Each structure stands twice: as structure tokens, then as C-alpha cells.
Amino acid sequence: MTETSAMGPVIAVVGPSGVGKDSLMEALAAGDQNLCLMRRVVTRAPEAGGEDYDAVSEEAFSKLVADGHFALHWPAHGLHYGIPHQIEALRAAGRGVLVNLSRAVLLQAQEVFGDFIVLSVTARPEVLAERLTQRGREDSAEVQRRLARARQPLPAGLRRLHQIDNSGDLQQAVAAARAAIYSTAVPERA
Predict the structure, then answer these.
(1) Domain ranges within the chain, ordered by starting residue
(2) Which end of the chain is less crowded, N or C, counting CB atoms within 10 A of the terminal residue's CB?
(3) Where do the annotations place ATP binding (predicted)?
(4) Does the pLDDT value for residue 137 go beyond 50?
């Protein structure tokens, strides 16, 4: 990424709830002027907490879809998510745009955005269980469901996929993510 007219990449940050996606994204953007965050539009109540998002009703979301407001939109876990077309203006400025995406929409996003990097954020199961329990938003049964879902593989066919372990120090994960973003080599699939 440079300050030329080249489009910046879309950097999808994916991983299970509690893995630290938002913390990683915020630290990456804070430490690198060539990276910025993209706020999602979500049909979730504004008081639900968690990530920084634009809350809308299902009716308002449907109208935004009909009006062509989104570069990408999808349903997941009973909610609807959208990435506004504003992402293209950020990319046109040559900036890499960090966005929290659902694994189910990754292949579609790769086709829509072209220059597309996936950072798959992971953590050891015991670390993830502790983080989910500490945040107190899920009961023990939901924690177990989320841990099981964390083991599901990403879709095949992603061209630039990087695994980022966020089990320990956040700065180590940030360094690994930054190296992946600026790597020109396509990683091998495991």
C-alpha cells in the first residue's frame, strides 16, 4: 500500500466470538496510517455492545439494500450485516480497509473486492473459553456452542489466507497481522 492511486486491499478479519478481532483491528489501525476500519451496518440493537457498528432496524436494512447502499451484505446468526459502498472511497485513497466479516461471505467478498486478504484470528480453546466466560454475554451452553463453531474450517478457495494466533500478547498478534498484510507472497494452504 502506497500513497499512489492504487486501490488498497480489503482485509477481512474473521474468527470466533471472543478471539479478539476488534482489539486486533483497532490496534492495527491505530499503529498504521495506511490502514483504516470499516464500520458495519447491523440489525442489532445499539445497546447490545461489542464492536462499533451502525445499528438499524430490519426494515431500514431492507431499504438500504433496495437502494444499493451496500458493497456487500449477508445474513448471519439471525442478524443482517452490510458493508457500505464507502469502503471503495477508502480503498481509492490507497488505504487498506479492515473489516470484520463472517466466514460464510468470504468467497463472495473475494470476488467483489478483488484485492482481498483474510486474517483468520485464532486462540487456543482454553483461552477462548476464558474470554467468552469473562465477558459474561453467553451462558455456559452458548459458550460451548461458540467453541464448537470456532473449529469449523474456512471455505476452500481463499487466495490470500493468513492464520493469526491471538492467544497471548496482543502486540505479537498485531506484528504477525501486519507482516501478513504487507506480504506479497501468497501463503500456502495447510
Answers:
(1) 10-39+94-182
(2) C
(3) 15-22
(4) yes
